[in-house]
């Protein structure tokens, strides 16, 4: 079985056959290294994505820093950002997640980052563009400079929007 950026590494243990767990990290790192962004902070939207964000920041280099959002869940299927750990003020933001479904948490997190004074130069990188329900509309209106995804889930032409960039997993 070949997987890409499982939501939790422990999922590999549920298979009775060998699992090759690939990651889109090198694709994202290469893409953003080439952009040579100044004052970059890689932001994890929750504690579960901190390790990925830290590795990405390290590979991008050029004094890239790390921050993450601390969330609470006041009720089922609702997440609220309680705090941002790390400095985002006057920084270019690269928000990274393994998947974006409805884009509710991501766009709420983006609003919170703006309240904390980040630059208007904000990028989103996600491996799996589930993009269900209101996701396309939310992402198109959110104010990201670019939304970078992989092709693990195809995005129909009618669901594509300005600023959406798809990276192929084929090199992996």
Strand order of the largest sheet: 5-4-3-6-7-8-9
Radius of gyration, rounded?
16 Å
Structural classification: alpha/beta
Low confidence ranges: none
Q: Average pLDDT, to the nearest integer?
A: 93
* Topology as a string of helices (H) and strands (E): EEHEHEEEHEHEE
Number of helices: 4
- The percent of residues in helical segments reads 10-25%
- Count of DSSP E strands? 9
Terminal CA distance reads: 15 Å
What overall form do the CA principal axes indicate?
Answer: globular
Largest sheet: 7 strands, mixed
Strand content: 25-35%
Oligomer: single chain
Written account of the structure:
It is a single chain. This protein has helices spanning 25-35, 50-60, 104-115, 135-142, and strands at 2-4, 20-22, 40-44, 65-75, 78-85, 92-100, 122-129, 146-150, 164-167. The protein is of the alpha/beta class. The chain is built from four helices and nine strands; from the N terminus they run ββαβαβββαβαββ. It is 24% helix and 33% strand. The mean pLDDT is 93.
């Amino acid at each position: 079985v070949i997987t890409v950026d499982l939501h939790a590494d422990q999922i590999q243990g549920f298979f009775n056959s060998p699992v090759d767990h690939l990651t889109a990290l090198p694709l994202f790192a290469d893409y953003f290294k080439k952009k040579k962004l100044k004052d970059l902070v890689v932001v994890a939207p929750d504690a579960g994505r901190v390790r990925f964000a830290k590795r990405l920041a390290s590979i991008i280099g050029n004094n890239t820093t790390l921050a993450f959002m601390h969330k609470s869940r006041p009720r089922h299927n609702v997440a609220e950002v309680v705090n941002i750990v790390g400095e985002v003020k006057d920084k270019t933001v690269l928000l990274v997640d393994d998947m974006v479904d409805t884009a509710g948490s991501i766009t709420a997190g983006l609003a919170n980052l703006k309240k904390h004074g980040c630059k208007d130069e904000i990028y989103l990188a996600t491996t799996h563009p589930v993009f269900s329900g209101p996701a396309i509309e939310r992402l198109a209106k959110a104010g990201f400079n670019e939304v970078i995804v992989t092709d693990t889930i195809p995005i129909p032409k009618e669901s594509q929007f300005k600023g959406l960039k798809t990276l192929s997993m084929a090199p992996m």
